[in-house]
Write a structure and sequence with these properties.
261 residues; alpha+beta; Aminopeptidase; 8-stranded mixed sheet; 9 helices; 10 strands; 36% helix; globular
Length: 261
């Protein structure tokens, strides 16, 4: 719900008030979001670029032409982005992005609107809590207007060694499993070998070590599917995050009502 969903945010950076959030309005703005994704995923996080990405400096894939791109802009410059894929866009491209890693059948069977989040990132110079909160406010506005019931997407832990990530994966399984009716599973042929740390783990210490955006979803009430998938292309290990929007939208709805008043 980063390369899904991985970003480092220095908390000491002040929030600048000259930001705007809205959906991309054309190919140029989408390309700017793809360039930002390339800088973050390839140059910062060590993803392996496709030949087209290496040639163009744009992170692109088949979903980009069919989905929506939520942008944070500073004086018109794209400094943050989320990619939004609804049922219609997924049908046009042959399925949701995360279906290549997880069995998301339980989510597809849910009535009403669902929305997959992905390719989320923020420019290094704007990577602070204020920018992320602005993106979430834009997302919450879409959720409310379109009556989205469920958000989901692949959340990324840095690195491709499940053994090294065993404390984080065990913690997520022990404390944050999604409700059974919404619990996606790693596809058998993609599932990473899972082994609990022999020495156990400190839940508070492990929770603190999680990527900030993943912690944000968990704090909002998100749950995790069963199993993990190693994504060598993006240099990550992925879990499937599912969030019922009721808690999140209620929180932001109160903000909107306060502003309106």
């Amino acid at each position: 719900m980063t390369h899904q969903m991985h970003m480092h945010m220095p908390p000491q950076m002040p929030f600048s008030g000259c930001l705007d959030v809205r959906l991309a309005r054309g190919p140029a703005e989408i390309a700017a979001a793809q360039a930002l994704r390339h800088r973050v995923f390839v140059h910062e996080l060590g993803a392996t670029p496709s030949p087209e990405t290496a040639r163009t400096g744009l992170d692109v894939d088949p979903w980009d032409d069919h989905c929506e791109h939520l942008l944070a802009l500073a004086d018109g410059v794209v400094v943050g982005t989320y990619r939004l894929i609804g049922r219609g866009a997924a049908e046009r491209v042959g399925g949701f992005y995360s279906a290549a890693e997880f069995d998301i059948g339980p989510l597809l069977r849910e009535p009403g609107e669902i929305l997959e989040l992905g390719r989320s990132c923020i420019d290094r110079d704007w990577r602070n809590r204020g920018t992320l909160q602005l993106l979430w406010q834009g997302l919450a506005d879409i959720i409310i207007r379109r009556r989205i019931g469920i958000l989901f997407g692949c959340a990324s832990l840095p690195g491709t060694d499940p053994h090294a990530l065993a404390p984080q994966l065990a913690y997520l399984h022990d404390h944050h499993l999604a409700p059974l009716p919404l619990r996606a599973r790693a596809l058998p042929h993609r599932a990473a070998p899972m082994r609990r740390p022999d020495e156990g783990y400190d839940p508070r210490q492990v929770a603190h070590s999680l990527p900030p955006l993943l912690k944000g979803y968990l704090n909002a009430g998100a749950g995790i599917g069963t199993g993990a998938v190693v994504d060598h292309e993006f240099n990550t290990t992925d879990v499937l995050v599912v969030l019922k929007t009721e808690t999140m939208t209620a929180r932001y709805q109160r903000r909107y009502e306060t502003k309106a008043a």
